[in-house]
Amino acid sequence: MSAAVEAFLAMLAAERGAAANTLAAYRRDLETAEEIFGPLTGVDRAGLARLAAAWADLAPSSLARKCSALRQCFGFLVDEGWRTDDPSPALPRPRTRRPLPRILGHKDVEALFAVAEAEAAGDRPEAVRLLALLELLYGSGLRASELVSLPLNAVPRDAPFLTITGKGGQQRMVPVSTRARQALSRWLALRGNTGRLLFPSTGKSGHLTRVRLFQLLRELALRAGLDPERVSPHVLRHAFATHLLEGGADLRVLQTLLGHADIATTQIYTHVDSARLVELVNARHPLAHRRPAG
What we know:
Strand order of the largest sheet: 1-2
Shape: globular
Helix content: 55-70%
Radius of gyration: 24 Å
Number of helices: 14
Number of strands: 2
Structural class: mainly alpha
């Protein structure tokens, strides 16, 4: 790999806090590109045009990722003086449409909580733990990986917030509802002194795994009379976002709560329908309350 690309990857790691998986994917994509047409410092637009044929069999999402890596790299090379021009306009521009996540309605969520709360009433540790997990997934919108690996020191003592370390090592504060704090208090009283992690396990990672969390939720869905195929940690995170927006939450605030780097991700993820947006404009815009002239 060329020194220029190594410098780009080092910048991603140092300045943008890119995760290891992101860096590995970028490295593969850029290595593949340099195998096709040589160092990125010398390739011209005609050379880039050959990628359309070389990557013709790729899925649109894969092609989009590779082209994004190249565009960012070329921008860096121009900024740092490795190149005097940016040939990236010659890259193919696949149109991709991210699939919308499955949706749980309010009644579905209520059914899950009804069973979880009833089962936790007897203070059985596994049931109280599941209730705490459910409260944090739906009440705070955590990613599964963020939730299962929570350290004890992330749990609030006086302030109603959790400190979350998300993708790329970026930290954010997320609110914890009174219900969730009560469930966490019950769980902390039952978990005992078993290390520094909130949801410990005897497995290699030392904490509850994402796979086990997924299984627990599907089993809960069955007991609640729901189709288990419709329930997962990601679906509950999406329900958190969708239901907040339905209640009038600001999209920028929601972006912060979810830990999205790009507002476009939040807009797609939350699945806001056009009818609600029109209703919001009609109700909130200053001109909505003015009578037309004449």
